[in-house]
Amino acid sequence: MEQPQLKKDIGLFIATALVAGNMMGSGIFMLPATLAQKAGPGSIILAWILTGMGSIFLALSFANLGTKYPRTGGPYEFSRRAFGNFTGFLNAWLYWNGSWIGNVAVIIAIASYAGSIFPILTNNHVVGFVFTSVVLWVFTGINILGVRLAGKIQTMITAFEIFLFLGFIIVAAIHFHGANLTPLFPHGQGLGTTSSAASSTLWAFIGLESATVAAGEIRNPERNIRRSTILGISIATMLYMAINVFAIGAMGHSRLAQSSAPIADILSQFLGGGVGKVVTIAAVISILGTTIGWLLSTARIAFAAGEDGVFPKAFAKVHSKYQTPYMALIIGSVLANLLLLMNYTKSFNSAFIFVTLLATLSYLPVYAFTAASEIMLMKKMKEMNLLKFIKVSLIPLLGFLYAGWAIYGSGAQTVMYGFLLMLAGVPFYLYMNQRRMSEVDTIEQKHYEAGGSPVH
């Protein structure tokens, strides 16, 4: 029986919402307070500028490669073509692990905001764990029922989210006080904290590659991958910078650092506590949209690796009715649920910070490899002369340097965790490679026994 294939059911509008929606969500709702704890106003603004520029360079590499190689798997496919199967595996391994770990961070953010309305979610860890598990499996089910259904729901939530952020920006701008931005570089939070802040702001840009990851399900990918990537990151970048600057100006740096729900707290301060609760509910709805998109992306990278035999073939199973990679969705959600179980004794805030750093470190090498892949694949073009090569390599080179700088800024402990995660994949690759070779030998043996000539 022929293996069912993924269905091309994503147009430009949904693809753009996938990019913007995956980027926005838990990051922007939680980061203003996290950044205020790490750095001063000047370092935060500088970190957003540097991260925005670096992420745009990386997004252009993803857009260019996604247009040339529109196959499900995005960064896995690019690095495999440029550097071979092992590098392709490492990209798939890091991205997939970063994705299901990141899903935990997104769901923790949902519980953190919902906990301000229903305190039992934060006060009773068992109830909190059950709530996050239900959220995880409801949206896993939606993804199994079809990419178009998941895409439509996320598109509606992303549009709602954009209007919510625009409303916040207007309110914060009205109550903006320039004095709240001073001193720009307070004692202990000077320019030296910029790299640390940038490692956190990058979490808000994770997802810029979403259109390339789902390329096999995007209609007219040669055009829509590039457009959706550029449109999605442009929308998110402008909103991010405006939200963070106006949040500091409206609340003040020191108070912002102590807030557990900064956007809701700021609106409550100026519009009353009732409005804050409404915004908190809106925040939960917005982050739910991010959950849908990230579950989709997590499954697609594993599906692509499973198709090539780099991951177990179970990941490549497609539902006969809904044409979705249902096994990749289920396996990723099982692992996410286990991590939720391991973290349910911690506070949501401490768990969120740790998980986002670990997930971000998983993506950074993937981003660096993607930028390097564009350079390598351009180098392989015969018609490319040296001058043209230097000219077209400038943007991916800048993206590569930015990714390296962000890895440095993540800190020694986080880099160590990321390196250990990478090393953990090596035995897995060796096992899968040996298994593939054994399958090839079996096929050659059967071919030879059937009277065919030896296959080399």
UniProtKB/TrEMBL annotation:
Membrane topology: Multi-pass membrane protein
Regions crossing the membrane: 12-33, 45-67, 88-114, 126-145, 157-177, 197-218, 230-250, 270-296, 326-345, 351-377, 389-408, 414-432
Keywords: Cell membrane, Membrane, Transmembrane, Transmembrane helix
Cell location: Cell membrane
Major location (coarse): membrane
Protein's name in the database: Amino acid transporter
